[in-house]
């Protein structure tokens, strides 16, 4: 389900958040599907439950999940239609592309990279 890299400079809670987002966007986790409880996932990954709670809280803030008191955390049904989230990602993309171009990466190289991503997504 989730792969954590303890040598990565990225904090564990962000790795969990990003991993869950990929599973949701990729369709492995479907709308209204219940996520493992904080304790279950913490036990599975052998990490502190507070780390899982932080990842879940950020996912909820970003609109990827919702909580039902006493029932658990679920994948948001409106995940794929989130225009605000798309706008945030486009801004991040623009900032990254601008920085790459500042570092003398050619536009053609960026286009090739996008083509590689499209091909890789097509294989899934």
Would you write up a description of this structure?
The structure is a single chain. Helix 1 packs across helix 3 and helix 2 (38-45) packs across helix 3 (49-61). The protein starts with 11 loop residues before the first helix and ends with a helix. The mean pLDDT is 89. Strands 1-2 form a two-stranded antiparallel ribbon. The protein contains five helices and two strands, in the order H-H-H-E-E-H-H. It is mainly α and 124 residues long.
The number of helical elements comes to 5
Order of helices and strands: HHHEEHH
Counting helices, strands and paired strands, the structural category is mainly alpha
Fraction of helical residues: 55-70%
Specify Rg, calculated over alpha carbons.
17 Å
Give the number of DSSP strands.
2
Poorly predicted segments: none
Distance between the termini: 16 Å
- Spatial arrangement of strands, main beta sheet: 1-2
Shape: globular
The overall average pLDDT, rounded, is: 89
Oligomer: single chain
| Major β-sheet profile | 2 strands, antiparallel
Report the portion of residues in β strands: 5-15%
Short description:
The protein is mainly α and 124 residues long. The chain is built from five helices and two strands. The two termini are 16 Å apart.
Chart the SSEs and their pairings:
Blueprint: H1 12-25, H2 38-45, H3 49-61, E1 65-68, E2 72-75, H4 83-102, H5 107-122
Helix pairs in contact: 1-3, 2-3
Index terms:
124 residues; mainly alpha; two-stranded antiparallel ribbon; 6% strand
């Amino acid at each position: 389900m989730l792969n954590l890299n303890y040598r990565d400079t990225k904090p564990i809670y962000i790795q969990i958040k990003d991993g869950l987002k990929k599973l949701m966007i990729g369709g492995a986790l479907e709308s209204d599907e219940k996520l493992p409880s904080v304790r279950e996932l913490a036990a599975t990954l052998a990490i502190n439950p507070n780390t899982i709670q932080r990842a879940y809280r950020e996912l909820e803030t970003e609109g990827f999940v919702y909580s039902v008191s006493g029932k658990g955390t679920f994948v948001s049904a409106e995940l794929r239609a989130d225009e605000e989230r798309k706008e945030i990602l486009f801004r991040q993309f623009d900032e990254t592309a601008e920085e790459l171009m500042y570092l003398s990466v050619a536009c053609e190289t960026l286009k090739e990279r996008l083509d590689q991503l499209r091909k890789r997504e097509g294989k899934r």
